[in-house]
Design goal:
Blueprint: E1 2-5, E2 8-15, E3 19-24, H1 35-42, E4 47-52, H2 69-83, E5 88-93, H3 95-106, E6 111-117, H4 126-142, H5 144-155, H6 158-163, H7 165-176, H8 180-191, E7 207-212, H9 220-227, E8 234-238, H10 245-248, H11 250-261
Parallel strand pairs: 3-4, 3-5, 5-6, 6-7, 7-8
Antiparallel strand pairs: 1-2, 2-4
Helix pairs in contact: 1-11, 2-3, 4-5, 4-8, 5-7
């Protein structure tokens, strides 16, 4: 399905009836990273599960130069309006988590719950910002294959690459569907993120923090530190998983999310 939101065409999946849950995908992937999880949760027949493609990724269009996390948050709010959702639980992984935190900052009254996976509330360092610009220029000059070669060793663990090569192949296929301009716009947008650590103590709804045991980008220590600032947050470390914990250990990730959603 597609809808025009904030002047771009946003592609999204929308299945089921019940408690609204919106899944926000990682950089530089697309909404299909949530397909298996959503299919499993749909069997319980108590959730409405929505997963959009960010602008410039998957099947969504793009018309801006920089995709800030605030803009992504506005896109989620616009999609909720289109779908008639007043509130939803957001589940964001990596860049999806950055967008979920931006949504928390702009639209706290529209959140019923939050799942933050392999992400962090802090801003980029100057070194990290320079790397974001490198990634943006690489996408613009050398294309998606170069981005996949650069990102995949950081996104998935050596354990996954050795034991589940199909995951790497799937991630590479997802990266191939992105527009180079979308990759560049999002990379520059992530570099502009504000530090939102200060809003964590204001969270008044159930929150789950998930992190891969082998995540080198947002490691478990970082996840525990920011989760400690969220009132009554649950923290779960997924064994043998890197940064894309839902793809690397899908059965464990599913069980963790299922148990969290069962409390609503």
């Amino acid at each position: 399905m597609k809808a025009t939101i904030n002047t771009v065409e946003i592609a999204y999946d929308d299945h089921g009836i019940g408690l609204p849950v919106i899944f926000l995908h990682a950089f530089p992937l697309n909404r299909s990273m949530w397909t298996d999880l959503a299919a499993a949760l749909l069997k319980e027949q108590r959730y409405r599960l929505v997963a959009p493609d960010w602008r410039g990724f998957g099947e969504s269009t793009i018309n801006n130069t920089i995709s800030t996390m605030e803009l992504f948050a506005d896109d989620v709010a616009g999609l909720m309006d289109t779908l008639g959702m007043q509130q939803a639980i957001l589940c964001g992984l990596s860049m999806g988590g950055y967008a979920a935190l931006a949504f928390l900052h702009k639209y706290p009254q529209r959140l019923a719950g939050l799942i933050l996976a392999d992400t962090r509330p802090g801003a980029d360092s100057e070194e990290a910002k320079a790397n974001r610009e490198h990634v943006a220029r690489l996408a613009e000059t050398q294309g998606n294959g170069a981005i996949a070669d650069l990102q995949i060793p950081k996104l998935i663990s050596d354990y996954t690459r050795r034991n589940h090569p199909e995951v790497e192949a799937r991630v590479r296929r997802m990266i191939a569907t992105a527009m180079p301009s979308g990759i560049a716009a999002a990379s520059r947008g992530m570099a502009q993120r504000a530090d939102l650590t200060h809003i964590l103590p204001t969270i008044s709804f159930p929150t789950l923090v998930v992190v891969g045991e082998l995540d080198v980008l947002t490691p478990p220590k970082m996840a525990r530190e920011y989760a400690a600032k969220i009132p009554a947050a649950q923290v779960v470390v997924i064994p043998h998983a890197g940064h894309l914990s839902n793809l690397e250990q899908p059965e464990i990730f599913l069980e963790v999310v299922r148990n969290f959603l069962a409390t609503f």
